[in-house]
Amino acid sequence: MIGNSGLLHLNGFSLGGILFIRPATIAGLLNHNPVKGVINGSLWTLPFEVSCYLGVAALAAAGVLRRARVIVFGLFVGLWCLHAFDWVDPDSFWRWFPYPGMKQAVMLCLFFSAGCMCFLYREKIPHSTAIFFISLVTLGASLPLKMFGLIAPIAMTYAFLWLTFALPFSSFDRKGDFSYGTYIYAFPVQQGMVLLGIHEKGFALYFVSSLLFTAVLAFLSYRLVEAPCLGLKTVKMFTLPRRARTSVTQQIDGLPAPSPEPAIQ
């Protein structure tokens, strides 16, 4: 319990020890479920995600997001090359990077950087139906060629963003963004439903029950935890000068930073 008091901790003094949440189970709980003993299989991604957001904050503080967006593009290309190296020759990748968790870190940071790049260059990326279908065809063709992992960071990212703007769900998050709570709580809710034997009464009841309970928890999570925390992003950062504080905040929010004030003569 003490070892998991934070998302980033030292368990074994390795990349895997720092980023992986342990233990994933409690005694013999859920050992009779199809997914044995795992309380919440979604949590393993959170330390990686926190690391990515800390990286975004560092880039914003350094002025990269506003003045040198090409660095983010270079970061994406570098991560893709590392991911391709691992995909093509995993044994050599392990010899070069013999760190537990390195494979997962590269893959997840690659997709995270793909989203960052799409946001930073959003005014230059067309919302094209033709490109969307080309992306789908390319993803489909990559499966028998065993190249899906190399194509997905580009083609799948574009396809999902295209769907985000094309589907008639623009007002879905008007009352709040419940996606994160859904992701976090769906796994333990489904495990709990199996523990109670709901799955034995048919898939439809199991699915609807899981969806409803997850939706309630996601709503409460947003209202009681996420929204109050998001409100703290306007709290003054006393370690930075006022102008730097404004620049960092506006870069993270996607707004242009103000021009420097003229020096007083």
Key structural traits:
265 residues, mainly alpha
Walk me through the topology.
Elements: H1 15-19, H2 46-61, H3 64-67, H4 70-88, H5 90-96, H6 102-120, H7 129-142, H8 148-166, H9 179-195, H10 203-231, H11 242-253
Helix pairs in contact: 2-11, 4-5, 4-6, 6-8, 7-8, 9-10
In brief, what are we looking at here?
The C terminus is likely disordered. The chain is built from 11 helices and no strands. The chain starts with 14 loop residues before the first helix and ends in a 12-residue tail after the last helix.
Segments where pLDDT lies below 50 for 5+ residues? 255-265
Q: Count every beta strand, where a strand is a DSSP E run of 2 or more residues.
A: 0
What radius of gyration results from the CA coordinates?
22 Å
Range of strand content: under 5%
Helical content, roughly? Answer: 55-70%
Shape: globular
- Spatial separation of the terminal alpha carbons: 60 Å
- How many helix segments? 11
Largest sheet: none
**Taking all residues together, what is the mean pLDDT?**
81
Helices and strands, in order, run as HHHHHHHHHHH
Which structural class is indicated by helix and strand composition? mainly alpha
Describe this structure in words.
With 265 residues, the chain is mainly α. The protein has a domain at 175-252. The protein has eleven helices and no strands. The longest helix has 29 residues, at 203-231. The radius of gyration is 22 Å and the shape is globular.
